[in-house]
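Case study: PglZ domain protein.
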Amino acid sequence: MINEIILEKLYLKENEFILVFDPDNLLGAEAIVEHVNQAGFSIVNYEDPEVFRYYYEENIRSFLDRGKPLDNKVLIRYTVEQSIPYDIRAKCFFVEVTLRELFPKLSYTVIKELYSEVFDKLYKVYSRYSGPILGDKGTKDFILKNAYGVIPEVIADFQELVKTFIPLYYRGEELPRLIADYAAEAISSNGQLKQYPVKTIVSGKVSCFHFIQEQWELYIRKTNGEAVETVIDFGNYEIRAYIDNLFQENYLTPVKQLKLREYPTWMQSGVVYDIAGNIERKFDNYIDKIINNVQSVKSYKDWFGIAALWAEVLTLKYDQSKSYSLDNKKFKDTGSLLKECFKDWLLANYNMLASLSYAKAPVMVHKIPWHINHRFPKQENKKVALLVIDGMSLDDWFVIKEAINENNKYIFEETLCFAWIPTMTSVSRQAIFSGEIPTNYADTLLSTNHDDKQWKKFWRNIGYNNNSVAFKRNIKEFREDGLDDILNDNGLRVLGLVVNMVDDIMHGQQLSIEGMHQDIRLWANKGSLVRFIDRLYSKDFEVFITSDHGNIGAVGQGTLQEGLAVESPGERVRFYNSDINCDTIMSKYKALKWEASGLPKKYNYVVSEENLAFVKEGKKIVAHGGLAIEEVIVPFIHMRKENQNA
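Here is what the predicted structure looks like once written out:
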């Protein structure tokens, strides 16, 4: 409903150049981006005037001055009020789209903090609202009750609170921080709830299920006869109804039991005796879900869910410490299905991803610094650290997480995002530290030596001074020279680090993914990573972890000699000058020419398909550069200690 109203204001059919002032990032909604792209428009973000001017002169004005048609119509979007150069503005139809205009009776201060996916539901309710203009408190109350269905007045006890929020999180919804804080305060005003961890439940899915996991472990001990108590009544029918699904879908982890005991049927999914049998059932269950989900993909979010399931499969498949009987044919067939379906989806949809909103979470890696700044703006005076673990795939992260969280003392707010394709360090890591799309750093696309400069420029544009921003790369054991000096600088506010250990393990790997997981586990078990993260906590940093690209076990299909290669010559991608015809190359190999908006046009990008690489035929390696789901979808984690920020 609200999307149609926004799209009507753009007059897409009547214009070829549109300039949109979008201070609330309304055009970042997936449905709107998809519609604008289907109407033949490229969405270009006006963020850095110098960068945009370069892009405009190279990709738009040079065509117009020569009377050549553009490949696409152009929608230029800017989100911060600023002066747009006259020559650009004069060519465009101008429109302003704001929440203030769409919701005039609600507090703008409040609604601008909402996630874009809730606007449609909110607008349907708001369009029937005929009451007075609401202030901040009234708006929060209106949103909490009408958009999220949470009514503080009817939450009489803690069980009712848990029953309210489990289904909300299970639907994939979460309260924005401003609304969550209001909800916690309103619910806690009930005197009977003051002694309970209300904020833990309402502040987010991760903290809520972390608490429920702890309660479940106590509940099992209580059921076994121990003198312990829980504050959640798992016997409550409405809570009990969700238990099986919460364990099946990895919101909760079953408790291992050494002795065989009789438990009610509804509890059995939450306990495990036969470890090997349980692993085999999980493996089959994950595979079946992947096969089903691949057939019904409607959004990039569906691929995030599939990627997480496949990463779980990979960690089970390549766990050398266990001996399981897993269906190898089913594994290979599912991997082949995934590669083909994901490739087809990328070819049809990848171009829209760069324009999606980063407010709730970054969808692509170049939006990571934008999201961090949105979540912890400069005026809050928070310290933030971003650790980019070069080459870490999602399954690698699962191995690391298991190793560093044995005592369950950390809370991981995990989301996923898309790397830039080709999934090479110089392309995708530079996107992270610059906050830009690759076409905006075309001159340094083949280099990994500009991250420091790009990182500091991004935060300088936000308003930080250079002395408060630090960067260091080639971190492996966190004892590197100069690292202590950086951490001991009292003026430090923003830290960017490149951790190279996983990438080094990958490029030296002889045993494919199986050996890689083993080596990563050994590195993580040494404890240097987690000790460093604890040091960051001791200095009050908010800690974020991500990767520039993943990796895949690949098999050689023959070596290419010609062309300009990036990083590892001839593995999963080759870069050629744009005037070179690549048809002959692609006719000899299973490869495709990757074309996507946002990449510099001075190169052709030839990507090896399936799990193949441009190395000696039959040779097995671990590599990256292609468009497999393991390479493209990477983790983005806000990691904090239990009770931190509670």
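For the exam, be able to explain this: The two ends are 36 Å apart (CA to CA).
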